[in-house]
Amino acid sequence: EAGNGRIEFENVSFSYEGEPVLKRITFTCNPGDTVGIIGSTGSGKSSLVNLLPRFYDVDGGTIKVDGQDIRDLEPKQLREKIAIVPQKTTLFTGTILENIQWGREGATFEEVEQAAKMAQAHDFITGTPDGYNTRLGQGGVNLSGGQKQRVSIARALVRNPEILILDDSTSAVDVATEAKIKEALKAYAKGLTCLLIAQRITSVMDADLIVVLDQGELVGYGTHDELLKTCDVYQQIYRS
Ligand code: DGT
């Protein structure tokens, strides 16, 4: 359905064991937008996205998805809407096909293939002698870091989410391939809302919106050009 995948953070605060890590975060993400999230280590990027699938709950403020407070959604509804590729994903001993199907039980081969194509994993998979039936060693040891990340992205995409969260999931993928992944996500039939955490500024520069975090505070919110003019922290990241 077009028009799904709106995300609203309103005055969101969050702390770990009384230690504040997110302070009054407010931003809106329109359906189909790609939102880049950038900021130094420890600025709160992962914490922010981990609130969406309710791995943690807010201390204050509200997060809404498609107009509904996520605390009012059933876990199942939330799981159907949101797919997250965590910073450290785990592939298991089994075939590539099984590793991608883990995202959604009952996904057909065609659906797996389609997800892998979007994640730019299809070509390297079919380039191996056993293709999708290639058995991975523990943790996916026989794949490169970038290949593992692409299989993990395919695992999330096979779930057909409205919202895809990539937590530093393309750090080991080369810039050209990363651009192709982003293009494929843009062209995704349902209009996928994507939250993309990245270390490289080139990964977020072309996003519809960029959220800049600094020590748990939202210090910038806008496009690349806007932030270059208005946000000191963004300028510093850009220059470094
Ligand atoms: P990264 O992944 O190194 O680029 O850093 P961010 O920006 O993703 O930051 P995040 O959200 O991982 O951490 C924000 C702050 O929260 C940082 O001071 C570390 C702290 N923190 C993160 N996870 C936990 C946790 O599970 N327990 C506690 N007590 N503190 C945590």
Folded structure, characterized:
- The structure is a single chain.
- By secondary structure, this protein is α/β, with parallel strands linked by helices.
- The protein is built from nine helices and twelve strands.
- The protein has helices spanning 45-50, 75-81, 96-101, 109-118, 122-126, 145-157, 175-187, 224-230, 232-239, and strands at residues 7-16, 19-29, 34-38, 60-65, 68-69, 82-85, 94-95, 135-136, 163-167, 193-197, 209-214, 217-222.
- The protein has a six-stranded mixed beta sheet. Strands 2-1-4-5 form a four-stranded antiparallel beta sheet, with no helix packed on it. Strands 7-8 form a two-stranded antiparallel sheet.
- A hairpin with a 2-residue loop joins strand 4 (60-65) and strand 5 (68-69).
- Helix 4 packs across helix 6 (145-157) and helix 8 (224-230) crosses helix 9 (232-239).
- The mean pLDDT is 94.
- It binds 2'-deoxyguanosine-5'-triphosphate.
- Residues 16-17, 19, 21, 39, 41-47 line the site of 2'-deoxyguanosine-5'-triphosphate.
The number of strands is: 12
> Residue share in helices?
25-40%
Mean pLDDT across the residues is 94
First-to-last CA distance: 41 Å
Instruction: Write out the strand line-up for the largest beta sheet, numbering strands in chain order.
Output: 6-9-10-3-11-12
Shape: globular
The low-pLDDT segments are none
- Please give the radius of gyration in angstroms: 18 Å
